[in-house]
Amino acid sequence: MKNPYENLSPEAVAYRKQQIEALRKNKKIVSLLSQNKKNLKFLEDHSSILTDWLKNQETCYECVGLSNCAYAKKGIAGMSKELEFDEDGYMTEVLRPCRYRQEQEKRDAHLRNFWINHMDANGHLVNLPEISPAEPQAYINAAVTLLGSFDMKFGVYLYGQAGTGKSYLLSGLANEYAKADQSVCFVRFPRMISELKQNLADEQYKKELLWDLSHCDVLILDDIGSEAATPWTRDEILFPILDERMNQKKKTYFSSNLALENLINHYLFKYENDSEVAALRLMDRIKTLSMPVLLAGESRRIHPTNLGGVK
């Protein structure tokens, strides 16, 4: 039989024997070999792989979260090395999501149901049913109304001054729908209009965007009334979307700094004939699709200790 140490220096031989002895005494290694019916010869032949696996296991066990992952620089953040044995007894190294990454993937699984997502970076973490009871009553009432609308045929037109938390609450609602496996478009309306204008020459871009907004299960138009409105944005963009959603009875939500009676003025243009007719047609769609809910209160942005977000 070939001597496995014949080409090694005395120092390397000593290290190898020390490594094997440490593996023989390790409970995880003993358990792994026992479960897969492997003997000492297998341990000796695969000592480097087993040692590397053991170090990975110990490192991951001591980890406190993905932000501190020791393997991030190696491009395998959140991945743990595992050893698998096939039916013939062959061992293979595989990468599996660690416990923290599994938790993250489970937490973020609903994001696959967002066709368009303009929420803030942490918007997908907002949990509407867990709004703190210490919040102002108006804020709690708005959250309860939004949750109650989940089972209604129409959405909500949530309005109030800037910074009262409208976008935050609607982010939480969007998450609830996505977790229920509904397709969702959460759209910052001013941003959408700006992007459309930047892509005026791309008819396919416009076509696909309008199709998504018209056909998703739940549409949330955030900050409507703050966009740079024109007859084109009103009649060629917003009206067709809302008209189709009304006809298809699709759930639609809005947030705005303007009450409905003031929103109409945003879509009136003095230089345009029949401007009032077009604006009234649009308002009719909004009123049919949603019920107005006032979120009163001061801006949460000016209070650094606010509990439930802003916007």
Automatic annotation (TrEMBL):
Q: Which InterPro entries match?
A: AAA+_ATPase, IstB_ATP-bd, P-loop_NTPase
Q: Which residues form the AAA+ ATPase domain?
A: 152-252
Instruction: Check the record and name the CDD domains matching this protein.
Output: AAA
Q: What biological process terms from GO does the record include? A: DNA replication
Q: Please report a single Pfam family linked to this protein.
A: IstB_IS21
Molecular function as annotated in GO: ATP binding
**SUPFAM superfamilies given for it?**
P-loop containing nucleoside triphosphate hydrolases
Which PANTHER family is this protein grouped with? CHROMOSOMAL REPLICATION INITIATOR PROTEIN DNAA, PRIMOSOMAL PROTEIN DNAI
The molecule here is called AAA+ ATPase domain-containing protein
Q: Which organism is it from?
A: Ileibacterium valens
